[in-house]
């Protein structure tokens, strides 16, 4: 699910560390090690919600790697997302993103997937104006089932369902129902766009 080449380049490009007053960059091996920590192996998975929470924590906090300079070893943090300078991140959006099912091998096409530094953080399902948002909600829920494409949702932090009349979003795995929400989703205020 992760766009590996983009993530590796971003990890090396936006992360630096200082040792005894000198600045250094991380190398390809460091980037691959960090990427391996972001991607859960089957034995590290804790169900969809638990795995998503672990990945969320890693996205927010980063990961560490040990570097040895002149015989002196120290741990340094690699960030997956530059939260302080968003312009340093690389954003991609793709329509009809194809994902192969984990057990069925069936390919699903998500309407829109948004990536930050090669990490799929947004999945959007769009319907015709005549179709209800519940149909889009149901489709996203179906995608998350174990026999479908749950691996995409290990990384996803924002889900959006929409048609031309309305839209809803759900940040991560927030299932608390607050006023103005629909089953854990929040209705997005809509207004016509004017030039």
Automatic annotation (TrEMBL):
UniProt catalytic activity: Endonucleolytic cleavage of DNA to give random double-stranded fragments with terminal 5'-phosphates, ATP is simultaneously hydrolyzed
Annotated region described as Disordered, given as residue ranges: 176-195
Keywords, alphabetical: ATP-binding, DNA-binding, Endonuclease, Hydrolase, Nuclease, Nucleotide-binding, Restriction system
GO biological process: DNA restriction-modification system
Gene Ontology molecular-function annotations: ATP binding; DNA binding; type I site-specific deoxyribonuclease activity
EC code: 3.1.21.3
Species the sequence originates in: Candidatus Synechococcus spongiarum
Restriction endonuclease type I HsdR N-terminal domain sequence ranges: 45-170
Organism domain of life: Bacteria
Family: Belongs to the HsdR family.
Cited CDD domains: HsdR_N (cd22332)
InterPro entries: Restrct_endonuc_type1_HsdR_N (IPR007409), Type-I_R_enzyme_R_subunit (IPR051268)
Name this protein carries in UniProt: type I site-specific deoxyribonuclease
